[in-house]
Amino acid sequence: MRKLIVLGVVAAALATAACNTVSGIGRDLSAAGQAVTSGSERAKS
């Protein structure tokens, strides 16, 4: 369990470091949300 938590923290740190700014994080999260939405729309049809 501890390894999983450490891995999650490291992954989050790397993802945050890659974004450079808060607006970059917002754009990344928005793009991820749109990808999930479009995937679910395709799965429905």
Question: What report would you give on this structure?
Answer:
This protein is an all-alpha fold. Helices cover 91% and strands 0% of the residues.
Task: Provide a brief overview of the structure.
With 45 residues, the protein is mainly α. It is 91% helix and 0% strand.
Radius of gyration: 14 Å
Please state the overall shape, judged from the principal axes of the Cα atoms.
flat
Ranges with pLDDT <50 over ≥5 residues? none
- The ordered H/E elements are HH
Distance between the termini: 39 Å
Layout of helices and strands:
Elements: H1 2-19, H2 22-44
Signal peptide: 1-17
Protein name: Entericidin A/B family lipoprotein
InterPro entries: Entericidin (IPR012556)
List keywords for this structure.
mainly alpha, flat, Entericidin A/B family lipoprotein, 45 residues, lipoprotein, palmitate
